[in-house]
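cron nightly-structures :: item 1 of 1
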Amino acid sequence: MPKLRRATAWLVDFALVVALASALAVLTFHRVSALVTDVPELATRGGFDLLTSRGDVLDASQDLGLSLWDKSVLYVEQAFGLLVLTVFLYQWACLALAGARSARP
C-alpha cells in the first residue's frame, strides 16, 4: 500500500508540473505573438531605425530582427526560470509540511 501511495503522490506532482509548464508555454507563446504582431510599434521602431541608420538599411533591419529575437528569447528564459522556481518552492513546501509529519513515529 505505501508503494501505491507514493506512486500516486508522484503522479500528482508530475501532473501539476506538466500543467504549470503547459500554462507557461501558452503564456509565452501569446507574449511572443503579441510582440511580433504589434505592427504599429514595429513600424514606428523600424521607421526610426531606418531614419537614423544613415543609409545602412541592412544594419537597421538586422538590429530590429535581433531585438525581436532577444525579446523572444528573454520571454522563454523568464518562463523557464519561473517554472524552475515554482517547482522548487512546491517541492520545498511539500517536504516542509508533509515531511515533518512523516518523520514522526
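cron nightly-structures :: done
The two ends are 18 Å apart (CA to CA).
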